[in-house]
């Protein structure tokens, strides 16, 4: 198999659609824009690609104050001023005060790398458009040194968004887009088994039943995600919880619910109706076994 074909990793299962999106983005040399519920593995996807293809992994975490320029390079004028007054360095060599940003690192890498631009929608609206030119031509100019940084290898660019704000159309046109849907019960059970291969089947079945019941409740401010389920299963194992108590009591509820309103709503339903089993009539599914 071609080493540049991505098919997931042992600890990161992918759907056919997601696998195809990754490979198409790499084949076309386009950024891969990933959206989906928090906790569905958007960030981990980039790490999985790097692991599977043996590439260096570079993370650019975006904040509300992040500017596109920071991803290219930063000119440390403060350090240069300090050195001119107190240091022994040759301040005429401006290049020593130029520090490449994450995009600059990816361009300069001798090996093709995976660059994760995480939560792009946190920045201002101009940020995505400011990246377009460099992502298209794969180089940028540093006027302070007269140097042009050209990508030695086109990086695999993965961009995540939590849909906090709309992204510009011009930016979207240049990306391959994929929405990571919340996994169905069979896929989610497979994901849990990857992380907990020795998990007791009955505990998995009861945990899945309770988890999906919680997610089905109307009005939740934040539905529990895959990452919360994995943490909860680990808590159930560490806590030595008997499978029969999972559905009736939903122990360690604070592991899967992070909003006070959601926590209170679920507790009231459990106490008033006698737990998930009585409310739904669900029974442990053999498909988890």
What this model shows, in words?
The chain is of the alpha/beta class. The chain has 2 domains: 16-180, Rossmann fold, CATH 3.40.50; 185-288, no CATH class. The chain is built from 13 helices and 9 strands. It has helices at 16-28, 42-53, 68-72, 77-86, 102-108, 126-137, 169-173, 185-195, 201-216, 226-238, 243-249, 260-273, 276-280, and strands at 32-36, 57-61, 73-75, 98-100, 114-118, 139-142, 147-150, 156-161, 176-180. A hairpin with a 4-residue loop joins strand 6 and strand 7. Helix 9 (201-216) packs parallel to helix 11. The longest helix has 16 residues, at 201-216.
Tell me the layout of helices and strands.
Layout: H1 16-28, E1 32-36, H2 42-53, E2 57-61, H3 68-72, E3 73-75, H4 77-86, E4 98-100, H5 102-108, E5 114-118, H6 126-137, E6 139-142, E7 147-150, E8 156-161, H7 169-173, E9 176-180, H8 185-195, H9 201-216, H10 226-238, H11 243-249, H12 260-273, H13 276-280
Parallel strand pairs: 1-8, 1-9, 2-5, 5-8
Antiparallel strand pairs: 3-4, 6-7
Helix pairs in contact: 9-11
Strand order of the largest sheet: 2-5-8-1-9
Query: Could you state the CATH homologous superfamily of the largest domain?
Result: P-loop containing nucleotide triphosphate hydrolases
Number of E-state strands: 9
Parts with pLDDT < 50 across at least 5 consecutive residues: 277-289
The average pLDDT score comes to: 89
